[in-house]
Amino acid sequence: MIGNELTPVVEKFKVKEEETDEVRYWYLALGPGATHWEECYAQGLAAIDYHRVEGDLRLYKSRPELEEFGLGSNDSLACWNFCYEMRPGDVIIVKKGRTRVVGHGIVASDYRFEGDKDTYRHVRSVEWRSKTLADGLPADQQFPPKTLTEVKFRRDRFENLLAALRDFATTPGTSPAPYTLAEAASDVFLDLSNLERLLTQLKRKKSLVLQGPPGTGKTFIAQRLAWALAEERSMERIEAVQFHQSYGYEDFVRGYRPTEDGGFVLRDGPFLDFCERARKDCERPYVLLVDEINRGNLSRIFGELLMLIEADKRSPEWAVRLAYPADGGERFHVPDNLHLIGTMNTADRSLALVDYALRRRFAFFTVEPAFGQSQFRRHLEQQSVPPSVRQRIRERLSALNETIAEDSDLGSGFRIGHSYFCDPPTGESPDYDRWFEEIISFDIEPLLDEYWFDRQAAASEAMASLRAGD
Q: Residue 291 has what DSSP assignment?
């Protein structure tokens, strides 16, 4: 079993779990085989993803409007319920397949649309209460195959599962499952030798950046690498933040924050909090995941700490006075057991070249699209994708990436990643051809239009090759 990391992820929402007549109960699938569970758990989110639906679900005021995108009754109902019916305080059990569960939580926010994401853009904040991997139902009493199901019947079954999850969550002495590089190699589309190299560099430099084109699974790999360093499948010693253009020192390190009575109070940011946790547990490694590290102004975010994250300056003799000291004599250094893993999208036009200061302090590794790799082929086989569709994905996307890489205005950093095709449809009779076409139309075509915004003929030619008849 996986350990019981029970610290609430969403601090601003402190909902109670008492069951009342108004609380509703839901089964949720976070991707085929719960592939997005770890990511959602780490970020304190529940999320659904339907490529066919355009934009914010709140734009649609009825289920028939959603069905105009070709959604079936189950999918349109899932979108409608997730947006309009689910509410803070509701209870979610996350399922894996038809008979297993991975955890449960309490809905902590209204629906919101995160349009800057590539997938799973329809989200709600959730305070996850348990994290496990266990049999949930006997094989003859399977969960519904739908993404989201409100539990209106057989509430006793749901409540028995919920009671078991609560028991697990409060069982003393439960330890996280161990995690090895060999397991990481089976989870990602990198071979064991590359993962060993990455882990060696992370231990040597203390700081690593995974860079690459969009959709190459950089964040997914970063989390698995962090587990491998921690040697356990647990978020207990891992923290995640995301940089953006308006993110600053006061948000990340320490600054004055407004209070309810109109005043200001000096508060530590996630970096200082995480450093303090690592310092109190100095014998074990801790990992801070920084998503979109190149979106932020590194000098503005780290300030004087940019020097202190270097591997040879992790000691008290390098301690410095913070910009906002808690007292006059306070000096700070980054503990030796804290590691940083950043991710960087190489196709973002809005960003300047990465600062040389960042280049010197981090080791860099480029994550390549995996369309030609045997691990990706096996993944699609295991997901029952037909051979003809697998071949279409491999050949057409590889050819497109060659075209992009050879374009003098683009280059290899703008290639298309494999993550767009990692979640094939599920159900009794999935339409894989339609799934391929939807990804091409709703994910890749807008990206190519942006790439060749001044040469629409090139974008049209590339789309024609992707849609060519078999």
A: E
pLDDT of residue 154: 63
In the chain, list all ranges with CATH 3.40.50.300.
181-366
pLDDT tens digit string along 383-419? 889 999 999 999 999 999 999 999 999 999 999 999 9
269 to 16, 241, 244, 306: CA distances (angstroms): 26, 11, 15, 15
Q: What is the pTM of this model?
A: 0.65
pLDDT confidence of residue 446? 92
CATH number of 25-169: 3.10.590.10
Q: Are 29 and 147 in contact (CB under 8 A)?
A: yes
Task: Give the least confident one: 16-30, 33-47, 70-84, 340-354.
Answer: 16-30
Structure tokens at 163: 């009671």
Three-state SS string across 27-85, please?
Answer: EEECCHHHCCHHHHHHHCEEEECCCCCCCCHHHCCCHHHHHCCCCCHHHHHHHHHHHHH
Percent of the chain past pLDDT 90, that is, above it, reads 37
Residue 418 CB contacts under 8 Å (≥ 6 apart), including other chains? 189, 215, 216, 217, 369, 370, 371, 376, 397
3-state secondary structure of 9: coil
Residue 40, pLDDT above cutoff 60: yes
- The angle that helices 218-230 and 192-205 make with each other, rounded to 10 degrees, is 70
Q: Where does the chain hold its CATH 3.10.590.10 domain(s)?
A: 25-169
Contact 297, 228 (CB under 8 A): no
Q: Identify the band that residue 88 occupies on the pLDDT scale cut at 50, 70 and 90.
A: confident
**Rounded Cα–Cα distance for residues 435 and 441 (Å):** 10
Judge: domain 181-366, CATH 3.40.50.10190.
no
Give the strand pairing for 122-135 and 100-107: antiparallel
How do beta strands 122-135 and 112-113 pair?
antiparallel
